[in-house]
Amino acid sequence: MTNPMESRLIRRFKTTPAAIRVFGFSLAVVLLSQCRAPVSVRMEKPVAHIGAPAARASTDVLLASIRESHDRIVRGDDAAIPAYNFSVARLVEEIERSGSDPWHQTLVFAGSGGSCKLNGISPPDSDPLSSQLVPTDTLEFHGEYAGYESKVAGLGAPIVEGNSYDKLGHIGFRKKLPIRNLTAIVRFDGDLAKLELLDPYQVERVSLGGRSRRLAADYGAAVMLAMTKARVDKLGLVRLLRPTRYNDTANLNFLQPYDAKRIPVLFVHGLDSTPATFAPMYFKLLQDPEIRKNYQFWVFSYPSGYPYPYSALLLRRQLDQVQREFPKHRGMVIVGHSMISRLMVTDAGDKLWIKAFGKKPSETHISGHSRGIVMEALVFSDRKEIDRAVFYSGPHRGSMLANNWIGSIASRLIKMPGLVADVRNSVISVASADTAGLMMQRAPNSIGTLSPNNPFVLAVNTLPIVPRAPYHTIVGDRGKGDTPASSDGVVAYWSSHLDGAVSEKIVPSSHGSHENPEGIEEARRILHLHLKNTP
Questions:
Q1: Does residue 528 sit within a domain?
Q2: Is residue 299 located within the same domain as residue 401?
Q3: What are 279-323's pLDDT values in tens digits?
Q4: Which 3 state secondary structure label does DSSP give 233?
Q5: How many domains are there within the chain?
Q6: What phi and psi, each to the nearest 5 degrees, are found at residue 212?
Q7: Which of 505, 508, 534, 510 is nearest to 522 (CA)?
Q8: Mean per-residue pLDDT, 218-240
């Protein structure tokens, strides 16, 4: 029963659109002003090692120091590795500072012990001359996510190769990453020093002096640094309220260089959210050598103010592009915090269309651009490239939050995308008269498609998940342990539970069950299970 305060609020916001706009603007200002970066970075002076020169030494001095520690390592003295790594990192810094180009020419330096030559080698998809090379021992991370380190000790200096961060989150990138992890080592061939930049995902061990050693790596540094610069985490609320303005942020991006041998794990965020919420899971999973060796991580980012059938359409388009760019990629595991993931493993055919219009697509007369969009949104099959699905706090049957006064106000704050409004207006006149036929009328934004009574939600739940794709559910209960009467505060158990799931895990969590340590550990378990069942 609605209390008097709720009734007054509802009446006020129903009758004063200006108040709604003021409330929305104030809410956005408050939330954004209090939005602390989940991770920040400070540039620090690295701690010098005994036997290594100080920072800002000349190139010839650095090469002499690297040569000395290199020769000690070759003789079996691994105690020289820290000095070697430190000096290699400083050499990278000096090359960056001086603007030298060992990548396209051999440089000659005159030192006290005679002349020394230097050239550089980098991966084919790397461009160190036009990128910034930053040794990770100069980066000190702080904030909520800073504790999730994914480092491996060994030989070499971990670095981040990065270009401009300005467009991160706004432009899709796959074939050439704007920021990535590398590790630098130096080998000697007579008086020639070879500075090599290695991809730690492809090279785990290197040979020096006839002995194999583990390559040092900092697997989380690139993504962590990108998060501090681009602040993708701030896109959640603004994309919910004004989705059309951020349409260019609907992209499927890779978090590491593409590898045809690794299984993709695709993260899909939920309402009022961004891929940044998957950062704790991503960093934690990177700490597992078996997962790191066998999986690669992708993210789908999108404006969550769109109706989720339209957001699912955007993801299918992105998957089509990936399929064209990388036709031989392995079957993926989708890890979702929204209903979008559910639609990826559902074969709807034309059932939703018939439910909406009472007749087949060929018998339904919708003209222009709207017909194409409605066809994509309502007529679809499951994505054959997805082999397994993991649902975190999935609102499969909707959320009562969408029906109460909070959901009503939130829905009114979202500016209806013009494209969605045009489609709705085009189909109303040809839709059948029953409630299900007004599917597009009842789904103006993402809040509308969260209602348990929404015709699209009801229709989708009549369609089974395809048998070929095993699926798992992780459900939050806010630590109360009252399942099946539980809720994570946004989605109740009766909505997130799915019969037929291979496994169901209840975690003491609010709606962010994918950020909960037990929820993350469940993802790790599932990925190991998937490896055992994948040829």
A1: yes
A2: yes
A3: 999 999 999 999 999 999 999 998 887 888 888 999 999 999 999
A4: helix
A5: 2
A6: -80, 135
A7: 505
A8: 87
